[in-house]
Design goal:
Layout (H helix, E strand, L loop, with lengths): L7 H8 L13 H14 L4 H17 L2 H15 L3 H10 L2 H29 L1
Length: 125
């Protein structure tokens, strides 16, 4: 496990105190991040709040290792990829390091979805 991951929930709560998850560390940080993704989407019009939300994401991806990165990609970015307005906000808000991770996984996510759609279309014919 990477050094940032065990502290990530505490850091998130310090940086974005408005965010209150229905989950806690006992449920696992993945669940908390899932709630955080919906929080970001629902509050995307609040510029000051988004600066702090993406500040947390940038920090987590800079300080964290593979567990933190995987959690953010799976629980946040995969939901963000589904909403064009959030995609634009995300691309504007991430620092260079985080944006590279976002883009790398966006390409993989798109390819996976295209492959799944092609397989589904092939089965329907």
């Amino acid at each position: 496990m990477d050094g940032f991951f065990p502290t990530a929930e505490t850091v998130l709560k310090e940086m974005v105190p408005e965010f209150v998850s229905r989950y806690d560390n006992d449920d696992g940080f993945y669940m908390v991040l899932g709630d955080f993704a919906f929080f970001v989407i629902e509050n995307s019009g609040n510029h000051e709040l988004m600066q702090r939300c993406f500040g947390f994401i940038n920090l987590a991806l800079e300080k964290g290792g593979e567990y933190t990165e995987e959690a953010i990609v799976v629980q946040l970015f995969e939901l963000f990829y589904e909403d064009q307005a959030i995609v634009e906000l995300t691309r504007q808000s991430l620092n260079a390091h985080a944006l590279k991770i976002y883009d790398d996984f966006s390409d993989a996510y798109t390819q996976t979805n295209l492959k799944a759609l092609a397989e589904k279309a092939g089965k329907q014919q």
